[in-house]
Amino acid sequence: MMRSLFSGVAGLKVHQTRMDVIGNNIANVNTTSYKSQSMSFSDLLYQTTQAASGANAATGRGGINARQIGLGAKNGAISTAITTQGSAQSTNNPWDIMITGDSFFVVSNGSQNFFTRDGSFTVDGAGNLVMSSTGYTVMGWQVNEETGEIYPDTVSALKVMQEDNLTYPPESTTLAYMSGIVDKYDSALSSAGGRVVTLSFFDQQGYQYTAKFSIHSLGSDGQYYVQLDDILNSKGDSLVKEYGLSSINEIATFGGQDTITETTLYQLLDTAEYDAATNTYNMKYQPANILEGYATNQLVNAASNVVIGLQDGDKVAEGGDVTVTGTVKLSKSELVAPNFNLIYAPVEEPKLDENGNEVKDDAGNTVMVKVYHYYGDDGNGNTIQLPDAASGTDAGLAQWQTALQKSFPGVKVSKIEVKSDGSVEMEFEQTFKTTKEVTYKESGNYFVGEQITNPLEAYGLADTENTKYGYPFVAVSPDGQAQITKTFSYTGNRLVYDTEKGLFDYIGSPNNDSAILNFNASATSRQGDVIDLTRFTNIDIDFSLSKNYPNGGTSTASMLSGDKGGNNLGTGRAPGEMTGIEIAQDGKITAYYDNSCSKLLGQIAVANFANASGLSKQGDNLYSATANSGEFDGIGDDITKNNGYMTSGVLEMSNVDLSQEFTEMITTQRGFQANSRIITTSDTLLEELVNLKR
After folding, report:
1. Three-state SS for 438?
2. What count of other Cβ atoms lies within 10 Å of the Cβ of residue 347?
3. Closest Cα partner for 117 from 639, 508, 690, 528?
4. Which of 98, 188, 482, 577 has the greatest number of CB atoms lying within 10 Å of its CB?
5. 419 Cβ partners below 8 Å, 6+ apart?
């Protein structure tokens, strides 16, 4: 009788325990990353009243089962649904991280590692990534300083916001390259300044500068040289002026001095004449260049043929007279406009027949007609009619000459005829004075003046700082072409292209793809001050991407810092301030800076267990390893190893299912009630047994 009482008591206890588990689940329905628990029952003990016996073949009696009476229920197991993923809750806090998968964050209290699914992290005053609830540090892997990559090793605290990570250090530029087109027809390549290209670069302190280079033609196809012209600071001021130096070569050099000697055929200038007989050169003048007023004389400019009244070889002293004759046809609009200023107006005159007699009408009156004539000044301020035709010694020629004198002093007219459309044909003679002593060349209708003492001037050449022309040179008769030795020197690097394909060949010397912008260690100003230049780093500039192609006479060559492969190597940078942090799906923490750089700060490592349900709950959303969960190796794993991943700005919610918990609560309540009935019924039976004494 007493067995049923104790069975009921055992049943009440286990159902009470089950209710405790359910209550804890419901209490943690909003606990971050909480994993619900469930409880299973098992029967307790059995009292055997008769053992089992086997069959007896000899007697033919069969076997019987054991007779056992149970003594109630007990707690079989309390399991945690640790591998069941909770729902995601967006927080928009970058330090909140949710794990998708079966892994656990590793956190430490300074002496022991714990494990959690609670990714509500924050950064403490020391820059450590910690749990916001407990302050336990989040553990992970550090960055190898030499390689800049994650080095998986024993997990350690992630100091993501330590002082060194708040800024990104500057770096000097070490690599650069030139790309684009160098067009041989680009006029800038042959100019004194050349085709300018610039390179922006940084020194070791992160200050930005601009190096000015120029590309110059060497006169042969595919042959150029590149020289360093100046370096400007971030304000656009020249370092040469800022430091009080004499030249940019005191700061940096680009290539050495090179000399090119070649014999070239040059063409004589139009303003020079070569005399093969005397091997001399003389200045050559066209009439407009040597005769005063010739270039602006309207009669000469409009004349169809102009003849200079000199014989070949005639010499004319400075200020001497040279007579020019010509025939010109002038329109009515020209004659009534400046500089002629004539008047073309009608007048009533008798009509004449073919014999020159006046024509009469039927009444015997003279028939009058309107006739147009030119009028001019007679020299005394009076307006007179000019004849329509005159030649030789006609008096009319003198009238025309007088009318033209104001605009063309000294002009003489030998023949003139006014056409029906108002145009005038005129033969004239005009005298001009020379501005130099010259000799007339009838064959070319030009004048020859003073002898050219330096023959180079006859070819438009002059020695410069970079260019020297060698003597003697041989003039080639009769056109005066000459073979002249040209010696050209420059400081820089020769840039050579394949003339057939237009592709880069070399820079500086054969087989070189790049040239060095080489900085000096120091410089001395004109005032004697020593300037430290060690903050600058030499820059290797690659030219192999440039081409020597036609591009409409415009070169597009430009220089950029960095390696030509676009790997952002050797670009250099200014110092940067942290602007943001990103946590990737693999747990890698990357900082971003306002100088467009990024830096890997570390990686959150995770722990994986063979039996995660074997972990022991420690409160505060923490677990610890047990003998049944498997040990933590101290290093951890990359979360992506097991196809898991992390999500920033999201937390994992509790995986408690309220509908399931309420259902479990109902069945537990019914079980508790039933077990309580066992006790009350057993009590009634005991009461009846006691009443037998009565």
Report:
1. strand
2. 12
3. 639
4. 98
5. 425
Question: What are the structure tokens assigned to 369, written together?
Answer: 């007609």
User: pLDDT, tens digit, for every residue of 450-491?
Assistant: 999 988 999 999 888 888 988 667 777 667 788 889 898 999
Alpha helices in 505-565 (DSSP H): none
Q: For a pLDDT cut of 70, what percent of the chain falls above it?
A: 99
Place of tokens 């020391």: 126
Q: Cα 562 vs. chain centroid, distance in angstroms?
A: 11
* Residue 138 in tokens: 């989040």
3-state secondary structure of 264: strand
Note the pLDDT tens digit of each residue in 37-69.
888 888 877 767 778 888 888 888 888 888 877
Question: What is the distance between the alpha carbons of residues 369 and 351, in angstroms, rounded to a whole number?
Answer: 6
Beta-carbon contacts of residue 242 (< 8 Å; ≥ 6 apart)? 233
Average pLDDT over residues 218-232: 93
Structure tokens at 589: 């923490």
Strand order in the sheet with 539-547: 252-254, 514-519, 539-547, 175-181, 558-561
462 CB burial (10 A radius; 0-12, 13-18, 19+): exposed
The 10 Å Cβ neighbour count of residue 136 is 24
Where do we find the tokens 């009534």? Answer: 336
* Closest alpha carbon to 176 in 204, 160, 198, 191: 198
d(CA 12, CA 678): 10
pLDDT of residue 694: 64
Residue 677 has pLDDT above 90, yes or no: no
Please state, in angstroms and rounded to a whole number, the distance separating the CA atoms of residues 442 and 424.
30
pLDDT tens-digit series, residues 428-457? 999 999 999 999 999 889 999 999 998 899
Helix pair angle (2-27, 658-691), 10° resolution: 160
Predicted pLDDT of residue 477: 66
281 has pLDDT over 80: yes
Tokens of 127: 């820059």
Token pair listed for 147: 């390689």
CA–CA separation, 630 and 639 (whole Å): 18
pLDDT of amino acid 150 = 93
pLDDT in tens, 140-171: 999 998 888 999 999 999 999 888 889 999 99
Residue 481 phi/psi, 5-degree rounding, is: -60, 150
Quote the DSSP letter at residue 313: T
The mean pLDDT of 7-31, rounded to a whole number, is: 88
